[in-house]
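Note to self: keep these together.
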Amino acid sequence: MGMTKLSTKKTVPAYQRIKNAILDNIHRGKWQAGEAISTEMALAEQFGVSRMTVNRALKELSEERVLERRQGSGTFVAQQQFNHTFVEVRNIAQDLKSANRDYQARVVSKRSITASMLDERLRRKFDIDVPKVLPTGQALNNQLDNDDAPVLYEVKIIHFADGQPIQFEERWVDAIKVPKFIEQDFSIVNTSDYLIAKIPLERGSYTIRALAAPEEIAHALQVEAQSPTLVLSRQTYSSGQVLTFVKMWHAGDRYQFSGEL
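Structure:
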């Protein structure tokens, strides 16, 4: 059985497509803060959906403080900076500089990941669907063309405090949403700061676990293999989908998490 095209993601609901399009127009500067966006009727005609579907998209963006709906006047881009995240995401560069520590970053590797290269963990994390049916003929040519396009970017970075490795960062980013991510020099640009500047982050979640350091991590942190580490895993969302997933490994005897209640 042949296929017409490689499908890399599950079908996006109509209301989410409208949200994504509105966010894209804001990011590209088509609609500035305080300006009115297209009417519900115009959006319904543009996307071939009901006004109820459009209303859901606008309602959610209003609740996320991206838009402001004014009765009798229309819908406007909210008066705020959209290059700021809606959730606080601290990074180690900020923390070390705040503590007057000398901070440096060294990029270990950067690579693009195509659909065929995905492992099960990343496929599930980013909700990427790779069909199992093998295509034939022209469908195969379409797939080969598509398969060259990255779906994720991966970077691995060692962060240093006063010349000592203190964190090893493994990060994966949606290549479609942030196409220029891989081009950045992350020895100068912080990954979190770059993402926050490009895409509004709606929400996030994280876990902290104690794990024994695998060989690669131990080498990066300059500790013995199987030494105790603290691992902070975090995923952040934009437009209802995972934008980035990161694992930050810390040498257990050099780093601690603390705060005030």
